[in-house]
Amino acid sequence: MKVIFVKDYDEMSDKAYEFVVQAIEGSENPVVGLTTGGTPRGLMKRIVEGVNSKQIDVSNTTMLNLDEYIGPNEAVYSAKTYMYDNLYNLLETAPKNIFMPNGAAEDLDAEVQRYNEILAKHPRDIQICGLGTNGHIGANEPGTPFDSTTFIAQHTDATIASTMNEYGITREESPTEMLTQGFKEILESKHVVVFVSGSHKAEAVKAVIEGPVTTDWPATNFRDKDHVTFIIDEAAAALLNK
Ligand code: PGA
User: Fold this and answer.
1) What confidence category does residue 222 fall into, taking pLDDT thresholds of 50, 70 and 90?
2) pLDDT band at 20, cuts 50/70/90?
């Protein structure tokens, strides 16, 4: 994997946006995999500005998501709510396709299959991922095998705490499961970008960059993957030796 060190959240968002633009400009029918949470808010803003100022044209671009919470589509925490509030409703030119897992599907096994078929038909040029404080990627939580495929994941307590914090909800209101791309689908993307900001991620960054490769820290799965780029800001890099 490659590692790019940046100063702060804004520089991290700029760099991630650059990679998204490269992917969009580098393909006739680009497919961009996005993600939700605190980390991508700056990236979403930049995509909105880029599209609405006509710096980038997304009319041929397919956009899809890394994962989705199991729960109502309109829940405050759903990836669908996030994507429409922060991106799709703000774009003056719509992307060619928007795909999301349906976290409210009655038959979740069938939904996993449906989403996997979408992924198979739309190979990603870029997949953006955040990094959990416990090293998770999507909802590939600690202990998940490195060859996981799209599945319904159970959140760890650390992830539930992050969700509560991000969306200002109680433990009872918080979703506990997620439909997530597995490592297999994530790594199928031509380029995988993991971006990380803030001191609360420093322990995870240290484990991922300097610790042993282990399913205890899921993102260590990327250590030997040349098409994965980490973008890490100073606060998140604070515990690294060099
Ligand atoms: P965050 O989440 O962007 O809200 O920190 C990242 C993640 O858990 O993948």
Assistant:
1) very high
2) very high
The amino acid at 22: Q
DSSP 41: H
Active site residues: 67, 134, 136, 141
* Nearest-5° Cα angle at 132, 199 to 108: 160
Determine whether the shortest distance from the Cβ of 13 to ligand 1 is under 6 A: no
Distance CA(209)–CA(220), nearest Å, equals 7
Nearest to 199 by CA among 157, 236, 230: 236
Distances from the Cα of 191 to the Cα of 224, 225, 226, angstroms = 14, 10, 9
From residue 231, alpha-carbon distances to 59, 103, 127 in Å are 27, 29, 13
How far is it, in rounded angstroms, from Cα 134 to Cα 87? 27
**pLDDT of 98 above 80:** yes
Per-residue confidence (pLDDT) for residue 242, from 0 to 100: 76
Question: Ligand 1, closest atom to CA 37?
Answer: 4
Quick one: pLDDT band at residue 181, thresholds 50, 70, 90? very high
Rounded distance between C-alpha atoms, residue 47 and residue 26, angstroms? 16
Share of the chain above pLDDT 90, in %: 100
- The answer to whether the CB of 148 is under 6 A from ligand 1 is no
